[in-house]
Automatic annotation (TrEMBL):
Gene (UniProt): hemH
GO MF entries: ferrochelatase activity; metal ion binding
InterPro entries, A to Z: Ferrochelatase (IPR001015), Ferrochelatase_AS (IPR019772), Ferrochelatase_C (IPR033644), Ferrochelatase_N (IPR033659)
GO biological process, any: heme biosynthetic process
Full protein name: Ferrochelatase
Protein residues bound to Fe(2+): 196, 277
Coiled-coil intervals, chain numbering: none
Compartments reported by the entry: Cytoplasm
C-alpha cells in the first residue's frame, strides 16, 4: 500500500467575529448555495447578502463565544480517526478541507500533493448527501483535479454519504438514550429530529437525495433505539425567501406545545459536530420558543464530536473504502435517474429548460412592471417619453 491520506470535508466556520463577513461572502459566492441564471451576478449578490446578513450572524456567533468551534472539533476528530486507524494497522495522514473557511480544501490538496500521498479517501463529514454540502465540495475538488496532473496521479475514492453507517447510528442512539433516561418518564418524551434544511427545489427539481437520506436515517435511529416514544422530523436554519423543506422547526415546536406536548428531546440529525446551529439556534432560539409555547422540558442530544463509537464508524468507512474498488466523482449520480448530482445545471444559451424558466420569470416581471406603470402613470417608460 502506498502513502495513504484521508481528506475530511466540512463547511468551515468563522474563527472570530472579524471572519464572519468574509466567511458569509465565500458561502454565498457558491452557486450550489445560491442559484442564479447569470454567473456575473453571483459575486456582487454574495457581497450584498453577506453584508446584509453579517450583523445578525455576528451577534449569533458572539453568543457562542465569538466564533465557530467547528475547526477545533474537526481537528480532534482527525486526530481520533488517525489513532483509531493506527490501532487497526492502517497508517494514514488525515487532512481537513473546509469549503468556505480555513483550513480551505485548496490548501489541503496542496499539502496532500506535497506529502506525496498516493492513495486518498475523500470522506465528507456530512452523514447525508446534499448538493449544497458534499456535492459542493466534490464539485470543487473535481475541478481542481481536472486542472492538476499531479493530483491526477493520486488513486482516490469517494464516500458520498454514510447515514446508515453502524458506528454513527449506534453513537447517535447511545447519546439519545442517555438524554431520555435522565427524564422521570423517558418513554413519554417526544423525540424531535431537527435537520438542516435545503431549498425544496433541490429535492424536487435537482434530485437531491438529502431528504430521503434524512428520513431513512431517522427511521434507522428509531429502529435501533427500539422504544415507542412519539417522534417528529422538521427542518431548521432556513435562509432567504424561497421555500425550504417542510415542516419548519420553528413552526412545529409551538404546534406540538398546542397539542399538549410538554417534554421534547431534540436530536440534531444532520450535524456531527457542535456549531452555531446546535449551540445558538437550537440551544438558545428554539429553547426560548419552546418555553414560551409552554413546553417545560427541552433537552438537546449533544453532537457526536469524538464519540468513540462514531470514530470507530468513521474508521470502518475508511478501511472499507480502501479495500473496495474506487468510487469516482463520475459515479456520484442520482440514485435512480443516473444523472450527475453535481455540478449543477450551468446556464447555457439556447432552448434549454433553464432558459425557458428564466425567460418566463423575466417576462412576468416585465409584465407586472408595465402594469404598475400604466396604473400609476409613472415609471421609466414615461420618463423616456414612450408612454
Ligand atoms: C447538513 C448540513 C448543512 C446543509 C444541508 C446546509 C445547507 C445550507 N446552508 C446555508 C446557509 C448557511 N449555512 C451556514 C452555516 C453552516 N451550515 C452548516 C451545515 C449545512 N448547511 C454548517 C456546518 C455551518 C457552519 C456553522 C458554524 O459553526 O460556523 C451559514 C452561516 C451561519 C449563519 O449565518 O446562519 C449560512 C448563512 C444554505 C443557504 C444552505 C442550502 C442551500
Ligand atoms: Fe448551512
Amino acid at each position: 500500500m502506498g502513502r495513504t491520506g484521508v481528506l475530511l470535508l466540512n463547511l468551515g466556520g468563522p474563527d472570530s467575529l472579524a471572519d464572519v463577513r468574509p466567511f458569509l461572502y465565500n458561502l454565498f459566492s457558491d452557486p450550489e448555495i445560491i442559484r442564479l441564471p447569470f454567473r456575473w451576478l453571483q459575486k456582487p449578490l454574495a457581497w450584498l447578502i453577506a453584508t446584509r446578513r453579517a450583523k445578525t450572524s455576528e451577534a449569533n456567533y458572539a453568543q457562542i463565544g465569538g466564533g465557530s468551534p467547528l475547526r477545533e472539533i474537526t481537528e480532534q476528530q482527525a486526530q481520533a480517526l488517525q489513532e483509531s486507524l493506527a490501532q487497526e494497522g492502517v497508517t494514514a495522514k488525515i487532512y481537513i478541507g473546509m469549503r468556505y473557511w480555513h483550513p480551505f480544501t485548496e490548501a489541503a490538496l496542496a499539502q496532500i500533493k506535497a506529502d506525496g500521498i498516493e492513495e486518498l479517501v475523500i470522506l465528507p463529514l456530512y452523514p447525508q448527501f446534499s448538493i449544497s454540502t458534499s456535492g459542493s465540495s466534490f464539485r470543487l475538488i473535481e475541478s481542481l483535479w481536472q486542472e492538476d496532473s499531479a493530483l491526477q496521479k493520486i488513486k482516490y475514492t469517494i464516500i458520498p454519504s454514510w447515514f446508515n453507517n453502524r458506528g454513527y447510528i449506534q453513537a447517535m442512539v447511545a447519546l439519545l438514550r442517555q438524554e431520555l433516561d435522565q427524564l422521570p418518564e423517558p418513554e413519554k418524551a417526544t423525540i424531535f429530529f431537527s435537520a438542516h434544511g435545503v431549498p425544496i427545489s433541490y429535492v424536487t427539481e435537482e434530485g437531491d437525495p438529502y431528504q430521503a437520506e434524512i428520513e431513512a436515517c431517522v427511521h434507522l435511529i428509531m429502529q435501533t433505539l427500539g422504544r415507542s416514544n412519539p417522534h417528529v422530523l422538521a427542518y431548521q436554519s432556513r435562509v432567504g425567501p424561497v421555500e425550504w423543506l417542510k415542516p419548519y422547526t420553528e413552526d412545529v415546536i409551538p404546534e406540538l406545545a398546542a397539542s399538549g406536548v410538554k417534554e421534547l428531546v431534540v436530536v440534531p440529525i444532520s450535524f456531527i459536530s457542535e456549531h452555531i446551529e446546535t449551540l445558538q439556534e437550537i440551544d438558545m432560539e428554539y429553547r426560548e420558543l419552546a418555553e414560551e409555547s409552554g413546553i417545560h422540558t427541552f433537552r438537546r442530544v449533544p453532537a457526536l464530536n469524538t464519540h468513540p463509537e462514531f470514530i470507530a464508524g468513521l474508521r470502518d468507512l475508511v478501511t472499507t473504502a480502501l479495500e473496495a474498488p474506487p468510487y469516482t466523482f463520475a459515479q456520484v449520480t442520482h440514485p435512480r435517474k443516473q444523472f450527475k448530482l453535481y455540478p449543477q445545471e450551468r446556464w447555457e444559451w439556447g432552448m434549454t429548460s433553464a432558459a425557458e424558466v428564466w425567460n418566463g420569470r423575466l417576462a412576468m416581471i416585465g409584465f407586472i412592471a408595465l402594469l404598475l406603470e400604466l396604473i400609476s402613470g409613472q415609471g421609466p417608460l414615461h420618463m423616456a417619453g414612450l408612454l
